[in-house]
Amino acid sequence: MRKYMILLVLLTSALTGFSKIELGTQFSDNMVLQQSAKIKIAGKTSTVGKVTVTTGWGKTYKATADKQGKFTVTIETPKAGGPYDIILDDGEQTVLKNILIGEVWLAVGQSNMVMPVKGFDAKQLVVNRQEMEQHASKLPPIRFLTLESPPSEEVSDLVLGKWVAADAQSVANFSAVAYEFARTLQEELKVPVGIIVAANSGTRIESWMSKGSLESIADKFLDLDRPFQKNSAAAMYNAMIAPLLGYQIKGFLWYQGEANRMSPGAYLKQFPAMLDDWRKSWGGKDLPFYTVEIAPFPYPTDKDKAYIAAFFRENQRKLARTLAQVGIVSTVDVGSSTTVHPPDKTKVGTRLALLALGQTYGFKERYQESVYKGYSTDGDKISITFSGNNRLQLLGDTLQDMEIAGEDQVFHPANATLQGDRLLVWSAAVAHPKSVRYCFKAYSVGNLFTEHGLPVPPFRTDNWSIIQKKTP
């Protein structure tokens, strides 16, 4: 009798518990799916046969599991709305509940993307955090999936984390930059917004690149013989990016670079290779990719290369200017002299949202930045012109961190005044000026803005060597 009871239990398990469908964490309760898109759902079942997927918006799809029980089904989403349920049936039903359809963005980077609304500690708090919590207390249709997967030597199928709806308590653990982006986007578009945060402090771009993209720009990996760690080649790509392929998104947010600032030239090859690889993997060659200038900070290890961070930001700008559907926002006015994690994440997140609204969603008037365009010399003065039709303004009596140099390449503090749409720069110490630099250093606080409140990014008029003479 006991043998028959054991057999009955085993048969029951085979028909119930063991037939339960396994899905990646990204496919779970409370998730947000990209509207009007084709979403690839990959899973595993212990049964070999049909898997039926029924959506709450009235569509049914069928897939066949292979010998390992793996299956893939592509569903089509409607316009923004919800909440909906999705039922997956392989003989037993698995129900995904409270699903919203809207706009989904993938936020990637290092510590400045990680930094949550509550801050890192008592000494590294986020300004306006109470306002963010109050906003979240109104239960906006904003959901976050914050990935917690550790670095991986091999490509992973699964990610760790769960979708969480925004409220006054949960928002404390959301990426502050990404939340401000989501908040501004949702208030303007009036649709649900989902953010997937794939970020890890101190990570280099190499760890976010697939091995294939790294091989495309290098003969070999420089760290193959080193102990594996989070900055090993493809370590974070394997853990957080590869498992998400097929989960359709609207675009990417990228706040990374501090860990690569000592190699600005290499970044010019690494970033495009990563971008091209990610876009191909998601099947969208024009997926928008919006980036952030590395934070202004007097990096203590950069004393012998005082301009290295400035050259890195310059290359970030060059990439945004030359690559299709890539944009960048400036942080020249929000840096900190005491921490590489600026506390003002509101401006950064809002600027990213305005950039997306302007370049992705057609609200052209929302992001009107003015950047350095050209210059001319008039005697002992240099006249600077800027792109766009924006009126420029100084916040304060004098322009901060403006420098001018002659043939000797020795920079001196400069005077500056706005004359219409031009900036006139001079110094009594430089009779025959050859170059002007604005906030072109590791740490500076810019105070030149457009009439719309956007800062003019750092710039220089010269193309002199990275090795500079010191200001006397």
UniProtKB/TrEMBL annotation:
One of its GO terms (molecular function) is sialate O-acetylesterase activity. Residues 103-353 form the Sialate O-acetylesterase domain. Residues 1-19 form the signal peptide. InterPro entries: Ig-like_fold, SASA, SGNH_hydro_sf, SIAE. Gene3D superfamilies: Immunoglobulins, SGNH hydrolase. Keywords: Hydrolase, Signal. The keyword Hydrolase applies. The keyword Lyase does not apply. One of its GO terms (biological process) is carbohydrate metabolic process. It comes from the Bacteria. SUPFAM superfamilies: SGNH hydrolase. This is Sialate O-acetylesterase. It comes from Sphingobacterium psychroaquaticum.
